From TrEMBL:
Pathway(s): Carbohydrate biosynthesis; 3-deoxy-D-manno-octulosonate biosynthesis; 3-deoxy-D-manno-octulosonate from D-ribulose 5-phosphate: step 2/3; Bacterial outer membrane biogenesis; lipopolysaccharide biosynthesis
EC number: 2.5.1.55
Signal peptide region: none
One Pfam family from the record: DAHP_synth_1
Domain DAHP synthetase I/KDSA as annotated: residue spans: 9-266
Cellular component terms (Gene Ontology): cytoplasm
Domain of life: Bacteria
Record's protein name: 3-deoxy-8-phosphooctulonate synthase
């Protein structure tokens, strides 16, 4: 898929990987603007095509008292303001058929969560908006099974689909990335590696998902080395106090160093 089909995307001729990055959830306007501005400065410097990511609501929670959002329309309006202020495209995840049309009024890319990627009606609803559809690979699915999710988008009259790998369940409380799946899924659609959710440690007895953020650069380097098309990173200036997924988000202060290293690896890979 041609990245230039996405409004306001920059640096598409840099031969770099593209980046979906931002907080797990939109907690408020100030935090979203602060993170977006910081990431944009880095990606402009490194010539990385950038799409700002933020969930307008969180439907998949371990406990009923977990944070779910600040209000659908309020959060979507913040995503729209980020886009208009910084002239960048945005992506958010949807959970119901009705979410698709609503979110499409505010963002450029609709993301199907991993646990919902087999929900045909949801995938079709997203596809029919005409937006790019980012399909998260189910933790329970093989790479080859994702061709069917991509085909649902195409059969709905939309050729704009991506796949994002976010790890595969390994036992009850850990995830693994099988890098053999990257080139396999690239046969079906451009493929992104989610380097933060891949390091989740789900199903903790506390009801709060754990993570291994210390391994983010390891996973990211490997993804770039095997030729992934894009990276997905959740980042926050204060992960320990983030309202969602703080245990596996990257501290914003480390983002520039990480991306600089990855761009250097990409340049080397491009020579082959």
């Amino acid at each position: 898929m041609d990245l230039n089909l996405i409004p306001n995307i920059k640096h598409t001729d840099s031969n770099n990987f593209f980046l979906l990055a931002g907080p797990c959830a939109i907690e408020g306007e100030e935090m979203a603007m602060r993170i977006a501005e910081h990431v944009l400065k880095i990606t402009d410097k490194l010539e990385i095509p950038f799409i700002f990511k933020g969930s307008f609501k969180k439907a998949n929670r371990s406990r009923i008292d977990s944070f779910t959002g600040i209000g659908d329309e309020k959060a979507l309006k913040i995503l729209k303001k980020v886009s208009e202020t910084f002239n960048v495209p945005t992506v958010t995840d949807i959970h119901t058929n009705e979410d698709a049309a609503m979110a499409a009024e505010y963002v450029d890319v609709l993301q199907i969560p991993a646990f919902l990627v087999r929900q045909t009606d949801l995938v079709v609803a997203a596809a029919k908006t005409g937006k790019v559809v980012n399909l998260k690979k189910g933790q329970f699915m093989s790479p080859s099974a994702m061709k069917h999710a991509v085909q649902k988008v195409k059969d709905s009259g939309n050729e704009k689909a991506w796949i994002t790998d976010r790890g595969t369940m390994f036992g009850y409380q850990d995830m693994l990335v099988d890098f053999r799946g990257i080139p396999e899924m690239q046969q079906y659609a451009p493929t992104v590696l989610d380097i933060t959710h891949s390091l989740q440690q789900p199903n903790q007895t506390s009801g709060v998902t754990g993570g291994r953020p210390d391994m983010i650069e390891t996973i990211a380097r490997a993804g770039i080395a095997v030729g992934v098309d894009g990276l997905f990173i959740e980042t926050h200036f204060d992960p320990s106090n983030a309202k969602s997924d703080g245990a596996n988000m990257l501290d914003l202060q480390y983002l520039e160093g990480l991306l600089s290293n990855l761009v250097a690896i990409r340049k080397t890979i491009n020579q082959f």
